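Need a sequence for this fold. Nothing fancy.
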C-alpha cells in the first residue's frame, strides 16, 4: 500500500471520528437531563460499588510491586503465579496495573505480558461477594459460585497461555523493555501516587460511558419501537459493566436467566474497563490480541460453568 492510500485512509478515519464526536456532542446538548442522570448514576455506582472495593487493593498491590525484591525469582511459573494472584484477585483494572509494573521491573517480557494481561483479568472478590452477591443476588453463596466460575475460566485460559508461551520461549522469553531503576523515596508513597491516577481513570471512564449509554438508550428508544429495559441493559453492558449489571437487576431480577446474564455482562466488561486496560497496558507496549480472545472465551464459558455450579 503506497503513501497516497495510507494518507487517504488516515483522512477518512479522521473524518469518521470527527463525525461521531460531533454527533455525540449534539446528542448530549439535545438531552442534557438524560446525560446528567446517566453521569450521576455512574458517579454513584463508582463511589458505592467500585471505590470501596478497588482502592485499598490497588494501593497494596502497587506497594508490594514497588518494594525491591532481594532475590527475584528466575523461574517463569513463579512470576506467572505472582501476576495471577496479584492481578486477577484485585479487580479491574488491577491485572493491567500488575502486569505493566512487572514489565517495567523487567520481570516479564512484552510477549509474556500480552498473554498474562488476558489471563490475569477478573473482578475483585470484594466486588463479586459484596456488591454482586450480597446486594444484587441477595445471596453470598451465589456470589462465591460466580467468583469460582470466573476463576475456573481464567485458570483454563492461563493453562492454554502457558502452553502457547512455552512454544516460543527460547526466542522471545527475554524482557523487551529495559530494566528501570528503582525510584528513590518511599514505595508506599509512590503506590498512593500511582493508585490515585488509576482511580481517576476508572472514575472518568465509568461516569462518561454511563452518561453515553443513557443518552444512546433514550435516543434509540425514541427513534425505534424497542423494549426500554432490554435496550438499556444491552447498551449499558456494552459501554459500562457496573451500570449494565445494575440495569439487568432492575429489569431482569425475576427472570431465570438473571444470574447468567450478570455473569455474561461481567465477563464482557464493557468499553469502560477495556479503555482502562488499554490506557494502562499501552505504557508497556503490551500486545492486546490475547486479551480480546480471552474476553470472548469468558463471555461463553463463565455462564456455562456457573450453570453447572448452580
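Here you go.
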Amino acid at each position: 500500500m503506497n503513501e497516497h492510500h495510507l494518507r487517504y485512509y488516515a483522512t477518512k478515519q479522521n473524518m469518521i471520528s470527527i463525525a461521531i464526536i460531533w454527533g455525540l456532542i449534539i446528542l448530549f446538548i439535545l438531552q442534557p437531563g438524560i446525560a446528567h442522570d446517566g453521569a450521576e448514576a455512574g458517579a454513584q455506582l463508582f463511589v458505592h460499588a467500585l471505590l470501596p472495593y478497588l482502592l485499598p487493593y490497588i494501593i497494596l498491590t502497587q506497594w508490594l510491586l514497588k518494594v525491591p525484591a532481594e532475590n527475584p525469582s528466575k523461574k517463569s511459573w513463579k512470576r506467572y503465579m505472582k501476576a495471577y494472584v496479584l492481578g486477577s484477585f484485585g479487580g479491574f483494572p488491577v491485572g493491567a496495573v500488575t502486569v505493566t509494573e512487572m514489565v517495567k521491573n523487567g520481570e516479564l517480557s512484552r510477549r509474556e505480558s500480552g498473554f498474562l494481561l488476558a489471563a490475569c483479568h477478573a473482578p475483585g472478590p470484594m466486588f463479586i461477594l459484596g456488591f454482586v452477591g450480597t446486594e444484587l443476588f441477595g445471596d453470598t453463596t451465589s456470589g462465591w459460585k460466580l467468583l469460582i466460575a470466573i476463576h475456573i475460566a481464567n485458570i483454563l485460559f492461563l493453562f492454554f497461555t502457558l502452553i502457547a508461551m512455552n512454544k516460543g520461549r527460547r526466542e522471545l522469553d527475554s524482557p523487551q523493555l529495559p530494566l528501570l531503576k528503582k525510584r528513590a523515596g518511599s514505595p508506599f508513597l509512590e503506590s498512593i501516587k500511582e493508585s490515585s491516577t488509576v482511580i481517576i481513570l476508572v472514575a472518568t471512564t465509568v461516569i462518561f460511558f454511563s452518561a453515553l449509554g443513557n443518552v444512546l438508550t433514550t435516543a434509540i428508544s425514541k427513534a425505534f419501537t424497542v423494549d426500554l429495559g432490554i435496550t438499556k441493559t444491552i447498551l449499558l453492558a456494552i459501554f459500562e459493566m457496573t451500570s449494565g449489571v445494575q440495569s439487568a437487576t432492575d429489569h431482569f431480577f425475576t427472570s431465570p436467566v438473571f444470574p447468567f446474564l450478570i455473569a455474561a455482562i461481567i465477563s464482557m466488561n464493557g468499553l469502560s474497563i477495556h479503555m482502562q486496560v488499554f490506557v494502562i497496558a499501552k505504557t508497556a507496549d503490551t500486545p492486546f490480541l490475547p486479551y480480546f480472545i480471552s474476553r470472548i472465551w469468558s463471555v461463553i464459558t463463565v455462564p456455562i460453568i456457573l450453570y453447572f455450579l448452580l
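For context: DSSP finds 14 helices and no strands in the chain.
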